[in-house]
Amino acid sequence: MRIVINNMEHGALIAAAIPRPFDPNNSVVFSRVTSEGNLLGGVIYDDYTRGCIFMHQASFGRNWLTGNMIWMVFDYPFNNLKVNKVAGVVNSRNHELLAFNQRLGFKEEARIKDAYADGDMIILTMERSECRWLNIKPKVYQKDPTDE
Question: For a Cys staple, 34 with which of 38, 75, 115, 134, CB 3.0–4.6 Å?
Answer without folding.
Answer: 38
